[in-house]
Request: fold
Amino acid sequence: MKTLPALLCVLAAGATGHGAVAAEPILVIHGGAGVVAKDITPERERDVRATLERALKAGHAILDGGGTSLDAVGVAISTMEDSGTFNAGKGAVFNHDGKNELDAAIMDGATLRAGSVANVHTVKNPILLARAVMDKSPHVMLVGEGAEIFAKSLGMQPVPTSYFYTEMRWKERQQALEDEKKSGHHGTVGAVAMDKAGHLAAGTSTGGITNKRYGRVGDSPIIGAGTYADLHCAVSATGWGEFYIRATAAHDICARMEYAKTPLGDAANVVVMDIVPRLGGDGGVIALDDKGDIAMPFNTEGMFRGTIDKDGHVRTWIFKDR
Ligand code: ASP
Reply:
């Protein structure tokens, strides 16, 4: 026979679908790992913090009004995609051929539904197209021309490829070509959120890595690598995507919580500070669990990131402690 608290849990499960009772909404975002202190000017820092704050407030308005974590993640990420500040949407990095190839994914923790797109060139907000793949197609992932055709079929107006140009990213690519560097990564955006029903969601959007070649796709749009959410855990990653794919990083963090009962912070730390670097990679994640605990480990010098709590209190960080 069930005890009263257990019975109340069952009733709550019926009301919200998975056992969550009224929860305190929370949103965590990142604007990418890989920032180096000597490269960031005061103007850039002001721009980054202002954009993070704008994205946090936009997402919080959704959660505060009783909207879903999925919607909050979409709004926060599309705000960053529109800003020109980060490596996603406008401001995305250039590939070896001087083009922008954009990837994004979103996942609903309550239902394990997911949508993702890769290698799109004319989609203003790849995160919104990823959401449409989830909601309006029978598929999880669409790439390249097919994804663009799907976007047009939904009435999403394509933007000219020049829309994504920013001088900063163009110079980065020229530098990468001169240095014969294989790649450079920084600036991907992501969000994880919990809504008032206690449902989690995660999303990530990126231009990938500077000077990438041959239709390269990173971890961000790969469900389980750069983006993952379930009933208890939501993760968005940033960093050297090849290694995050090989580590199935985002899913590994959630699996450690579920199977080994490892607390979120420890699970995220093992993957980001041990497993990925042992393979040779670097980067970071933002992670949120169904208790509202947050983890934001990174093994680069900095990672743009921010949080907003139920009262709308915003915090942003770039380096370890500021
Ligand atoms: N993870 C992204 C990728 O490899 C890049 C980044 O986060 O900066 O495509």
Q: What stands out?
A: The pocket of aspartic acid is lined by residues 32, 34, 87, 185-188, 206, 208-209, 218-220, 226, 238-239, 241 (CB under 6 Å). The longest strand covers residues 26-33. Residues 1-20 have pLDDT under 50 and may be disordered.
